[in-house]
Amino acid sequence: MGVVTLYRGGGTRSNLVAAIAMLMGTSVLFGTRARAQESGDHLGRPQSDIQSQVRLPPAKRESKFAPPRVTGWEIATHARFFFSIEDDVDFLTDRGYGLLFEGELAYRSPKLLFAQAYVDQGAYGFGNGSDFGVFSAGAMMGVDHRWFSVAAGAGAMRARIVDNARRATGWGPTMVAYARLGARDGFHGEVRQTLVFVGNEPFEGTTSAKIQFRIAPRVWIRFRGGGSRSGYGFGEAGPRILVRGDRGPGSVFLNPSLGGAGMFDEATQTTYMGFLFGLGLEYRPR
After folding, report:
1. What is the tens place of the pLDDT at every residue in 40-82?
2. What distance in Å separates the CA atoms of residue 224 and residue 116, rounded to the nearest whole number?
3. Do residues 254 and 273 lie in contact, with contact meaning Cβ atoms separated by under 8 Å?
4. What phi and psi values does residue 54 have, to the nearest 5 degrees?
5. d(Cα 282, Cα 254) in Å, to the nearest integer?
6. Domain coordinates of the chain in residue numbers?
7. At residue 96, what are phi and psi to the nearest 5 degrees?
8. Are 224 and 213 in contact (CB under 8 A)?
9. SS3 helix, strand, coil % of the chain, rounded to 5?
10. Distances (CA, A) of 111 to 70, 72, 84, 99, 153
11. Torsion angle of the four alpha carbons 34, 40, 44, 50, in this order, in degrees rounded to the nearest 10
12. What are phi and psi of 11, to 5 degrees?
């Protein structure tokens, strides 16, 4: 029968090998002492000290400029409120209030397909002057790459346009074009433009634009603006904050904003214009 010497630190695997060696009549030495004798550089030093000297390479940080593309569903909304103070001197504005709302439901597939249904703008103004509103919605499809996105689609709009001698009032179909240059969750600029047809004549529908900068792992700065000859316009700035998640499924973003907005009705010469307060929410379902 072989002689087996075990020291503390051999572990279950070492004991199993020792048992086999006993059956084969072989002497086996295990343990911390044996490992220390085999390496003169670490003689007599605890195993924990040896392991502490092993340094792993630093984890690769996500690019702020162009982070990886995220696929799946996304829901986004932004509501804006502004108040207008009556101009008693030049009578340029009427006392009133305005609400602007937009929303999106989008899907980005792993194979770069992009589809979106949207409310481009739902705007309503009311006060001492006339009450009036604008509404535009539609759907589009295109390509969504990490560095760019292009899409086109169609929808409908309730227009109130006075264009020199031309006048357009009522519902009409729209054509929409969209483009983004840069990473969606990094630095990028994007624009969306619609064309509305009322009475078989084309009119400029709505225009919106956005520029985004990433300034921290969970914080972006956004500048946005938009408007329409149908009677509204706005400009705003504010942070986009990742409050939950890692940008993937289950993530939630908040986007508070400040700026200015206005609504006008050329038919009744009513204008509401003032400071804007807004709040946006983005959610990426699991």
Report:
1. 444 445 554 544 454 545 556 777 788 999 999 999 999 999 9
2. 19
3. no
4. -85, 120
5. 7
6. 4-52, 72-283
7. 180, -165
8. no
9. 10, 60, 30
10. 12, 11, 47, 38, 20
11. -100
12. 85, 175
User: What letter represents residue 109's amino acid?
Assistant: S
Matching residue, tokens 């048992």: 19
Q: Which two tokens stand for residue 50?
A: 């040896």
Half-sphere exposure of residue 204: CA atoms within 13 angstroms, side-chain side: 14
Give the pLDDT confidence of 227-236 residue by residue, as tens digits.
Answer: 988 889 999 9
| Separation CA 266–CA 203 (nearest Å) | 16
Question: What does the alpha-carbon distance between residue 263 and residue 232 come to, in Å, rounded to a whole number?
Answer: 4
> Which residue bears the tokens 């509501």?
79
CA–chain centroid gap for 219, Å, is: 11
- Mind listing the pLDDT tens digit for each residue in 247-279? 999 999 999 999 999 998 877 788 899 999 999
* CATH class of the structural domain 72-283: mainly beta
3-state secondary structure of 15: helix
- 38-71: burial string, b at 16+ Cβ within 10 Å, e else: eeeeeeeeeeeeeeeeeeeeeeeeeebebbebbb
Q: Which residues make beta-bridge pairs with 1?
A: none
Residue 201, amino acid: E
Tokens of 85: 């103070």
